[in-house]
Amino acid sequence: MLSEYKEIFLEELDEQLQLMDEVILQLEQEEETERVVQSLFRAAHTLKGSSAAMGYEDMKQLTHEMEHLLDQVRCHTLVVTVPLIDLLFKSLDCLKELKKDIVQSDETVTDISACVQELQTFAALSHAVQLNVPPASPAPDCANYPVLSVDTTMRTQEACDNGLGVYWISLRLSSECVIRGARLYVIHSHLGSYGEVLYSEPDMEILAEQEDVPLAVKFLYAGSQGLQELQEMIASLMDVAEVSVEPLRVDTDTMMVNQGAGVEERMVSEDQPAVKGSKSPTIRVSVERLDHLMNLVGELVIDHTRIHQVERTQRSRLTDESVNELGQISDHLSRIIGDLQESVMKARMLPIEQLFNRFPRMIRDLTRDLGKELELVIEGKDTELDRTLIEEIADPLIHLIRNAIDHGIEKPEQRLKAGKASKGTLQIRAAHEDNQVVIYVEDDGAGIDPARMRRSALEKGILASEEAELISDREAIELIFRPGFSTASIISDVSGRGVGMDIVRSHIEKLNGLIDIDTVQGQGTRFRIRLPLTLAIIIGLLVKLQEQTFIIPMSNIAEIVRIPYQEIQTVRGQSVILLRSQVIPIIWLHDHFNIPRSQQAKSHIQLVIVGSAEKRLALAVDALIGNQEIVIKTLGSYVGKVDGIAGYYSRRRESGFDPGGVGNYQSSWPEVVMMSSPMAMDQDFNQFILLFKRKTGIDLALYKENQMKRRLFSLKDRRGFSTFIDFYHALDKNAGLLDELLEHMTINVSEFYRNAQRWEVLEKRILPDILLRNRRLKCWSAACSTGEEPYSLVLLLSGHLDLKEISVLATDIDQSVIEKAKEGCYSADAVKEVPTPYLNKYFKKAHNGRYTIAGEIRSCVRFKRHNLLADTYEKNLDLIICRNVLIYFTDEAKEGLFEKFSQSLKKGGYLFIGGSEQIFQPQRYDLEPIDTFFYRKR
Amino acid sequence: MQATGQEQYIEFAIEKEQYAIRIQDIHEIIKIQDITAIPNVTPYVKGVINLRGKIVPVISLRKLFELPDKDHSRTTRIIVVHHREDTVGIIVDRVNKVATFSDIQLPPERVGGVDGNYFVGIGITVGGLVGILKLDEVLLREQE
């Protein structure tokens, strides 16, 4: 199937499902049932058509059944009831599952039979009821206008497409008329000569044979005349007593036309704007294209800056008229570029409606599950913000809403007791305020009890008891944002799914946003989220560290201070300042970025205070340059994520400079490194360490910081987590990932006889078998790291063979670790598993407590740089040890490696691999499992 | 010996050594421009440049080939290559010409002072030997 069509189909599917969601909800609230049922029917119908075209049988069948049922509702043979709505929602969920299947692969795994069955039963049942009880009120439209056949509908549509007017003509002949049949026939053909009669009632052909001809007739007529003209024309005909002409109402009449499945797609799509309200025509454009456009505009700006500069240099040299003209052109260009940029930015903006529309359904389900009553008020649907932001903010918002319903809004009986209306209110509001988007989530529920927060924090060990007493109520409430804090006494399905408010906050901070909370006990809680309008452009403060320029996002900056050096104090080795009686640690950004700190020539130090209330940092910089609107670009995958750098490249959005003596950095500016939100970065990471320690008892803070951070960052990124908190929650659930992390953290602190039991198996079981056949062993330690593994092997072999007979090949991709391995110098920790006799015999302890391995052992190992993926392997090996390396490779690469390992092994040779690297179907590679982690070549 | 066909290469120089990259891997060749350093990355990543709005990391082969750093000159160029999903710039001292090699030998374990693994092969021309870079290896990031 062509993926191009699939994409279009999926987009349509999304749209229709979203529409159905909204519409079913409206149906439940009994809003304009007529219109609503129509649009629901149409959505089901559209999906039926397109899924059939794409060959998704299940979806076709399901939508067909839905359509069938809705048809009954439409014709008022079925009344909208709660079970019906539930069934419709259920079918909708089923459709969503099907969609997921389609997105993942073309195979459907979702079983729709139950749902289809239910729909059919429902339709059949209602039909049975229908037989006994005639419909209470026949549809008014059905009575007024006759039902048209598919054929007529198509002709009607054609006429509309050709720009003709389509009218219902109802006329009544005067009672004096003698030959009614003939008269009508004349009128009919008369009309036929001006335009086209699409339909008549009664049918003209039957009429000719009928005795009793009615006085009143209806024609569906298509012609180029206007309404007035037509009316006059017919009225002037003989024997016509009354005539009324009405234009055909497309949105109701044509829909009434189709009882069966013959609706023309065209008609359906044409109807939609009428239902949704007027919208200007739109087209879909991929974000990629917009980004590209944005890039190009960015380039224009830079080029324009150059022109501006040329103009200035020319002006100082020449006094020509042409220079003035150049200046004018340049100014004009700058305005155009500004507008262009604005427009491109706007093109990326979407109304938040897209997101908000998802909520009613979710809230309905939630309140039902929890037995609560709730009125949802949504305001500011039209507020526009960047589409990436809309996507990013969805999860945090959903979480806030869940929280509000689960913890905030009380049960109806409790509410009544507290003297409130039994129905709670949840307000979700979006608005623009000062170049920011503000979203409120406000409930009129129980509010947050600071005393309970304190207790809870104490129990969870988040606060010490003295601390708990000291903090203000406000601070107590802010505890909600601490990691590991969830006051829900019972973990419910709704909130408390392992994501807490801390995640919400870190998510929002990642978007350069802020969240705060206002709560009155007994009256309700309000969360306020403030977001920048777009992620693409932010305002940043340019700072200098030596010769390099960095930018700190303005939204993170609390204030900027300049203090004398002597005010810096030290607390436990950490430099701090005292600012309005708050102790704030000082971080030299230079250290963070490995830039030498500048000489202390000046008497004052420039500090940028970042972060919010309870956690602040003072970043020391050399100089401030100024504010600028900047565009952030990512560094790309080659460089990967650099700690503390969000991206690179900035520029001014408009030409012309701040007068505030920015100086001539103009010429050097476009290349500026962007500093990511410093708090978010540190906070996220620190929380991870905290949570991780609580879970595993391992304190990552004890590791060498840079190395550990780099490893963790790389693992987190490789596994596709955007924040450490996300990463932690995944670790929490997935033991495999946890193992991987542990492995990952300990690669270069590998030790002798790592996993000693395995080495025992090697010695007791594997080695004897190999030695039985051969005493000249060829062994290879692949990815040997700093040499612990090959040396362990030599030690092991020395118990069975003379050292002179032993030769082990050890390879690694990293030359630097090979150099270390050759040195053979290890910490006491690394050698703790070495049997004491060997330790005494072959290791020398230096005065610094490190152990150096003896030269005779070292000479048994042949080190070589080798790339497992690309290089050729040696042949005829008896034993290959390759542990804890394979986990870094893709499955595909792994398969290749196993294949190559197998080929390198002698018949009966062994492969020894690491803990998390089991081989699936080893027989594929001619290998057979012998013991855990050991495989033998067949 | 490998089959060569008449594949085209861009031949360039770093110090006195000649190297080549397959022409189909090359996106474009640009004059040296201001490079913005990025802190906390491997030393051979010199920084990034702004290539018409796209951020392109630039690496120096000098670090990789254990040569001392040198100031950029008039002939210094950045060869922008496509490698898998990435676009990467490689700083070279001089770009010589488009070349074809009728004879390409497998690289020895070490080429001059440089690890043989960095090369696909050695092209033999009248002008001397040309090391054909194995981009996979050269661009391999510091793997842990």
From TrEMBL, chain A:
Q: Which Gene3D superfamilies match?
A: CheA-289, Domain 4 (2.40.50.180), Chemotaxis receptor methyltransferase CheR, N-terminal domain (1.10.155.10), Histidine kinase CheA-like, homodimeric domain (1.10.287.560), Histidine kinase CheA-like, P2 response regulator-binding domain (3.30.70.1110), Histidine kinase-like ATPase, C-terminal domain (3.30.565.10), HPT domain (1.20.120.160), Vaccinia Virus protein VP39 (3.40.50.150)
Ranges of residues in domain CheW-like: 537-686
Q: Sorted alphabetically, which keywords does the UniProt record give?
A: ATP-binding, Chemotaxis, Kinase, Methyltransferase, Nucleotide-binding, Phosphoprotein, S-adenosyl-L-methionine, Transferase, Two-component regulatory system
Q: What are the residue boundaries of the CheR-type methyltransferase domain, all occurrences included?
A: 673-938
- Provide the catalytic activity annotation: ATP + protein L-histidine = ADP + protein N-phospho-L-histidine; L-glutamyl-[protein] + S-adenosyl-L-methionine = [protein]-L-glutamate 5-O-methyl ester + S-adenosyl-L-homocysteine
Recorded hits in Pfam families, A to Z, give: CheR, CheR_N, CheW, H-kinase_dim, HATPase_c, Hpt, P2
Entry-linked PROSITE patterns = CHER, CHEW, HIS_KIN, HPT
Positions of post-translational Phosphohistidine modification: H45
Residue ranges of domain HPt in the record = 1-102
State the InterPro entries in the record: Bact_Chemotaxis_CheA, CheA-like_dim, CheA-like_homodim_sf, CheA-like_P2_sf, CheA_P2-bd, CheR_C, CheR_MeTrfase, CheR_N
E.C. no: 2.1.1.80, 2.7.13.3
SUPFAM superfamilies from the entry?
A: ATPase domain of HSP90 chaperone/DNA topoisomerase II/histidine kinase, Chemotaxis receptor methyltransferase CheR, N-terminal domain, CheW-like, CheY-binding domain of CheA, Histidine-containing phosphotransfer domain, HPT domain, Homodimeric domain of signal transducing histidine kinase, S-adenosyl-L-methionine-dependent methyltransferases
Domain (Histidine kinase): residue spans on this chain = 330-535
Q: Please report the name of this protein according to its UniProt entry.
A: Chemotaxis protein CheA
| Origin species | Paenibacillus plantiphilus
TrEMBL record, chain B:
PROSITE patterns to which the protein is assigned, alphabetical: CHEW
Gene that produces this protein = cheW_2
PANTHER family recorded for this chain? Answer: CHEMOTAXIS PROTEIN CHEW, CHEMOTAXIS SENSOR HISTIDINE KINASE-RELATED
Pfam families linked to this entry:
CheW
Protein name (Swiss-Prot/TrEMBL)? Chemotaxis protein CheW
Q: Where is the CheW-like domain?
A: 6-144
Q: What SMART domains does this protein's entry cite?
A: CheW
- InterPro entries tied to this protein: CheW, CheW-like_dom_sf, CheW-lke_dom
Q: Domain of life, per the record?
A: Bacteria
**SUPFAM superfamilies, from UniProt?**
CheW-like
